[in-house]
Amino acid sequence: MRTPVPLHRYTKLRTADVEEARSAAGRVMSPHRLRAARPREFGARLHAVGIGSSTLLYAVYHGEAEVTALAPMEYYTLQLFLAGAADVVTDYGRRRAGAGQACVISPGERLRLRFAPGTVQVAAKLPRDVVERGCSRLGAEPAGPLEFGLAVPDGAPWPALLRLAVDTVDRFDTGILPPATGLELERVLVSALLLGQHHELRFRGGGARGYRAAGIAAEALEADPTSPATPEQLARSAGVSVRTLQEGFRARFGTTVTAYHRGVRLERAHRMLSAAGETRTVADIAVECGFFHLGRFAHDYRLRYGKTPSTTLHASRTADTAAPTG
User: Fold this and answer.
1) 90 vs 69, 71, 150, CA distance in Å?
2) Which residues is 67 bridged to in the sheet?
3) Buried b (16+ CB within 10 A) or exposed e, 163-188
4) Strand, helix or coil at 177?
5) Any idea what DSSP says for residue 153?
6) Which residues of 103-112 are buried (b: 16+ CB within 10 A; e: fewer)?
7) How far apart are CA 15 and CA 67, in angstroms?
8) Which of 120, 146, 221, 305 is 20 to 30 A away from residue 193, measured at CA?
9) 312-320 long-range contacts, Cβ below 8 Å, gap at least 24?
10) φ and ψ at 60, to 5 degrees?
11) Which residues neighbour 121 within 8 Å (Cβ) at sequence distance 6 or greater?
């Protein structure tokens, strides 16, 4: 039984026509010129699938071919060559990569690729803003422009994770990749690129500032769970930007400011429902804790505690009735 080629459910192109190959590949990547050294020997195959805002690709060139970008790149390209070889030339360097080798192309670079006959590669196209957000998510900042050298350091994790991402996509036998899976694959690839590629990343003091600010904001919310304070107001009180505060909450509590605030209010509602007297209702307690949409309150409460607010209230009243009197 033949092993399917990578991303075989996502075929975008399979042709021996140079112009057709140029047009289709240009739509997936970016406009470029494509020249075949021997047009009669030329053939191309391209498979592509979206993961989050990024794209995973599998590409084959039969016959020697040269690709020249028509404009500087607007995204990062991770390339892993499975067979054949390619000469990669950019504004910042030149590299020949053969089977089992990889390279990184950064945005802003003019690019020329010369593929040897039978070159096979898997690649990832990562938008600039996706990589920049990944940098912020890690609490890091580059010492300069976020640019990578073409060469990949020994032991860099992303080439193996690129293979893993492709293999993972191919496991979904329906040919439909769940959006959450795509986002996670994108996140892992970006983190591996940033942490493993040879690049000076500085884990900024802002990360520590955000961590401390999250603690200050959390204390304020726990002291007054029904406070109408917005993330903007909390950030201002803590002396940081909203972005730094959000990063601090993710690092310290694994959640956002809004989700943390909702959790504090739910905890207060749970305590009140568990100790409510005969005259209190679920609606009274919900509003007192800052929940004005009762259906949403009941939904969030059940997700957190595994039961409805009315069940908690009923159990509290039953316990009071059953309690012995002096």
Assistant:
1) 10, 12, 9
2) 34, 113
3) ebbbebbbeeeeeebeeebbeebbbb
4) coil
5) -
6) bbbbbebebe
7) 16
8) 120
9) 312/270, 312/273, 312/274, 313/273, 313/276, 313/280, 313/281, 313/282, 313/285, 315/274, 316/273, 316/274, 316/275, 316/276, 317/276, 317/277, 317/278, 320/277, 320/278
10) -135, 135
11) 57, 58, 59, 60, 79, 80, 81, 82, 86
**Sequential DSSP letters for 257-298:** HHHHHHHHHHHHHHHHHHT--TT--HHHHHHHTT---HHHHH
Summarised one tens digit per residue, pLDDT across range 226-283 is 888 899 999 999 998 888 898 888 878 878 899 999 999 999 999 999 887 777 899 9
Residue 176 has pLDDT above 90, yes or no: no
The partner residues of 125 in beta bridges, in order of sequence, read 55, 77
DSSP string, 84-99: SEEEEEETTEEEEEET
Which of 81, 44, 79, 50 has the alpha carbon at shortest distance from 65?
A: 44
- What would the two tokens of residue 148 be? 């990578």
Q: With contact defined as beta carbons under 8 Å apart, do 220 and 234 qualify?
A: yes
Q: Which of 43, 75, 246 is nearest to 147 (CA)?
A: 75
Q: What is the pLDDT of residues 123-134, one digit of tens each?
A: 999 998 898 888
- The per-residue pLDDT for range 31-85, each reduced to its tens digit, is 999 999 999 999 999 999 999 999 999 999 999 999 999 988 889 999 999 999 9
Query: 54-62 and 102-105: which strand pairing?
Result: unpaired
* Mean pLDDT across 150-165: 91
- Residue, of 135 and 204, whose pLDDT is higher: 135
pTM of the model: 0.64
What is d(CA 127, CA 125) in angstroms, rounded to the nearest whole number?
Answer: 7
Rounded Cα–Cα distance for residues 17 and 131 (Å): 34
- Cβ-based neighbour number of residue 303 at 10 Å: 9
| CA 281 to the chain's CA centroid | 42
